[in-house]
Write a structure and sequence with these properties.
There is one protein chain. By secondary structure, the protein is an alpha+beta fold. It has a single domain, classed as GIY-YIG endonuclease (3-Layer(aba) Sandwich), CATH 3.40.1440. 44% of the residues lie in helices and 21% in strands. Strands 1-4-2-3 form a four-stranded antiparallel sheet. The mean pLDDT is 94.
């Protein structure tokens, strides 16, 4: 799986996160109809995405997320992959915090 134009997209719904995101290490990207909103990394994709979905991050929620994508990545590789994706995709909320 890949993040970006070629990646598989999933609806930004708690049920879809539970169904589609595995409980394994990786990176993820959240997007809306026109922009990438946020790129993150976690040791458990499902738990990380659900925490954001259930959370109160004003930047993410304020940009009307519609979907997410993810890639599996080992703990050693996911931080570097996240940094590369942030440079490539320029997600709105990462630009404000990273």
């Amino acid at each position: 799986m890949a993040i970006g134009r070629e990646g598989t997209s999933h609806a930004w719904l708690g049920a879809k996160i539970t169904l589609r995101a595995p409980r394994t290490s990786g990176v993820y990207a959240i997007f809306n109809a026109k922009d990438w909103i946020y790129v993150g990394e976690t040791g458990n994709l499902r738990a990380g995405l659900l925490a954001i979905f259930d959370g109160d991050n004003a930047c993410i929620n304020g940009n009307d997320p519609l979907g997410f994508q993810f890639e599996l990545a080992t703990a050693k590789k996911r931080v570097a992959r996240r940094k590369r994706l942030i440079r490539e995709l320029k997600p709105i909320c990462n630009q404000k915090t990273d």
